[in-house]
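Give me the fold.
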Amino acid sequence: MRQENNLLVRQRAVDACLKRFAGQALRWGRTDCVKLTALALRKQGVSVPQLKGLRYRSALGAAKALEATGHDNLLAAMDATGLARIAPAAAWPGDIVGLPSDDERFDVALTVAIGNGRVFGLVDGAFHPAKPLTFVASWRVV
């Protein structure tokens, strides 16, 4: 069986994220940074069993759901996926990039790298591409 080119898999994952989330407003449990990250990971063949069955409809519910996974914050939850941390400048399309969050309960806002230093994620209340100036952490999707 022939294995598909990694860059094509990554590009398809980014395209799926753009198609599903572009222009969508934040709706906890439906269109939020965790759902975006989960889609990017699934499309690249990475399972995230910690998210199975988690439901929430508010920021408070999301914080409680995060706590139910056994993690204090999104950095710890991402580290628990087993993905290696990388320098944000080294992110390839499809990698996960954590940006500073306005909400201290979550510590980072998760985005998906789309190339050329740009990410796709929640910007001013809706999902759009952005070129951030500040990064917290990044993870290589293998």
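Helices lie at 6-21, 33-43, 59-68, 74-79.
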